[in-house]
Amino acid sequence: MASAHSLARHDDSGRFPRRRRILIVCVGNHNRSPIAAAVLAQLGGDTVEIRSAGLREKHVGKGAHTNMIRAAAESGYDIEDHRAVRVNLRMLQWADTVLAMDRAVLGELHELADETSAAKLRLYLDGEDVHDPWQDAYPAFTECVKVIADGARPHLP
Q1: Contact present, 32 and 132 (Cβ < 8 Å)
Q2: Model confidence over 112-129: pLDDT tens digits?
Q3: Between the CA of residue 13 and those of 73, 80, 94, what are the distances in Å?
Q4: Among 85, 107, 112, 130, which residue has the least CB neighbours within 10 Å?
Q5: According to the model, what pLDDT value does residue 139 have?
Q6: Is the pTM of this model over 0.85?
Q7: Which are the contacts of 23, defined by CB distance < 8 A and separation ≥ 6?
Q8: Does residue 121 contact residue 113 with C-beta atoms inside 8 Å?
Q9: Would you place residue 157 in the very low, low, confident or very high pLDDT band (cuts 50, 70, 90)?
Q10: What is the pLDDT of residue 14?
Q11: Radius of gyration from C-alpha coordinates of the chain
């Protein structure tokens, strides 16, 4: 993987501008947040630094759901190497924007956040939840990828 400096464009001063930091959070960092991170990273290129995390420990250290890996690949996104992590306050402080995949996740993030971090929290889709296809049939995973890809642009510089 190329370094941030090799990918970033110089600003008018000749310095590298700081990339916008976006953290995406779902319940397990197993389905929605990994694909959202891949979509935003691909679309945002060198203007963003993207991370994802989950609220629960259940999948920590494990890869994304096999159906999500397949659905992502079919849409041109590679999440094969993803490994789940659990969100913490330090991650919230790192981010410029924290995107929750649904209202329940947003509520739990507000409980975890400090005053400064709380101002950065918002839903990935304005006013809507991104459905978690966790126990659904495969078509729900492809629909989830589509919904996330369609909702990505407003979060990019």
Answers
A1: yes
A2: 999 999 999 999 999 999
A3: 39, 38, 25
A4: 107
A5: 98
A6: yes
A7: 50, 51, 52, 53, 87, 91, 92, 94, 95, 97, 98, 99
A8: yes
A9: confident
A10: 55
A11: 15
